[in-house]
Amino acid sequence: MKDRTSANSGIPTKKRQIEHWKVIAFYLIIYDIIAVNGSYFLGLWLRFDLRFSHIPSEYFNAFLTFVPIYTIVVLLVFYRLRLYNSLWRFASFSELNRIFAASVITALFHTVGITILFSRMPASYYIIGAVIQFILVTGVRFSYRYITLMRVSREQNAKNSHNVMVIGAGAAGQVILKELKGSKELTAKPCCVIDDNSNKWGRFIEGIPIVGGRDSIMEAVQKYNIDQILFAIPTASAQDKRDILNICKETRCELKSLPGVYQLAKGDVSLGQMKAVAVEDLLGRDPIKVNMEEIFQYISGKTILVTGGGGSIGSELCRQIAGHDPKQLIIFDIYENNAYDIEQELKRKYKNLNLAVLIGSVRDSRRIDKVFEQYRPDIVYHAAAHKHVPLMETSPNEAIKNNVIGTYKTAYAAMKYGTQRFVLISTDKAVNPTNIMGASKRLCEMVIQSMDAVSKAGRLDLLPFLHAHMDKTADGHVYDPIDHLAVDRIHGGEAKLRIESVENKNRTGTQFVAVRFGNVLGSNGSVIPLFKKQIEAGGPVTVTHPDIVRYFMTIPEAVSLVLQAGTYAWGGEIFVLDMGDPVKIDTLARNLIKLSGYEPDVDIQVTYSGLRPGEKLFEEKLMAEEGMKKTDNELIHIGKPIPFDTAEFLKQLENLAEASYENSDKIVQMVEEIVSTFHPVGENPSERIEHVS
Fold first, then answer.
1. How far apart are CA 323 and CA 343, in angstroms?
2. Which of 68, 238, 399, 440 could form a disulfide linkage to 392, CB 3.0–4.6 angstroms apart?
3. E-state strands within 360-503
């Protein structure tokens, strides 16, 4: 369009152009004038056997005289009900309701107006005229939407990249189908629907056939050339979901599913909510259910410290705690990037959260002491630890320093400053450990049990210093200026603890517990991210051994168990989750390959690298002698603590700490002497297999 210049101002102006919708509205007005009056003429014509000459002149004259009046009223009513400025390409029930309302109003006006002003017309005239008017007015408007949909459908079919099967002929499935059919941007064509309700078989939903139940999946995939399956049953049980998805993964189709039933409740079911089916969806175990109301009533108003708060478990703990009104949340982590990420996330989501993010190591006595002294946490969740088995095998002293000594120092500070509860995050690798990481976590559990015994007995005199930040006084005493404690070296080096701070004499009563669970899906160091990277690279996917099995749980489940332990704790317990049946890693890897649309050992090779140092074929949840005790939650059990000499253990722990800080090459042997269930295995894979079988 060319610009033109105003003669008076010299300012260029643009020629005004009428919007397209106004042109369409003008044509609709012309059509409506013809349609509404033609409808009643047809009613009159039909009444007299389709013969114009048979229509009485009084009726025809009354009709002609009323036409101008009726036309003006119709246009006013239609305008007020927005029948000329709607987007008819998206016409729906809202527009249909307004057309119906307009038709009723104008029909009533026509009936009353022509009868009172001119003449009473035949009854069929009123009825047939009103019906034909509604049909004509509705038809022209919705035909535009129909033509648009047909054009979109043809264009979509021409560029479709996916033939889609939807599993679930319920409310969620209907929404998904409607969006698939109505979207111009999507390149997917719904071809068939699967539902286990036999009453729906052979029928249609949104024009798509319901071809059968789960037993028909394989046949339907071949018949309709399906390459994408959408699981749209958010109310399905974990068992049903697993069974159906296990069938689907054999089809090599891309799989997606709705996250859960809450999507229906919130009313936001859509294709955008669909996520790729994850391998945990195939585990077939119902989610762990805990009394979250009870948990968060306990958390509310408390100052809570999470060590390792930037890690997988620690960060999820922080997320759940932050949303339930703690007095203050303190995140303590040595890795600043993770700490920063969770800090920014929580600040965005919880504007009023009293949050402190601190950088430091649990191995640093002075730093830990300062944190507890300043913030005085009521609850501590201790998630900071080295967890990677092979790496700890080559750096055993670091496992002891960080896991064992770090736990001791944090637990000691908790007792010193009157923390109510201290929850250690442990692992099933602590049961009959064959690697130093698992043994270190068993030592952590023993530290917690010892601390609980000391706390209950009030025997602070049993607690040793663990080879850090100690200075000698002029008289030969070993003195820790932070802890205000002194140790006399007597009887050939045997330590006797003396409390020098009266303030801390009675600071006992802290309840110490441990929470033990298996591998966490999606956590840092988990096999799932590794397998995904290997699949993206085209393989091979490396599994250590074809028979290796592990227990698995999701991060939210792990965190819910940790939080529940805080409410059940009396002190000294080891809480254990009933994680169902263990899963073969080989099966996990092959399922993940299938979920990615590949065939194991055809498209992506699976290779076996052999057990790594310290690794065993299976992990136990409990040592046999620990026994089992039920809690109010049927999926959470308590292991009966294994008795050991607390005083002797603490003396051994002091020697172990000193050796670890000296980077002793005898550290594994020392741990083996302390942890009776620890049986380190050699470098020979066959030796490891023989040991654990």
1. 14
2. 399
3. 379-382, 421-427, 471-472, 478-480, 485-490, 494-499
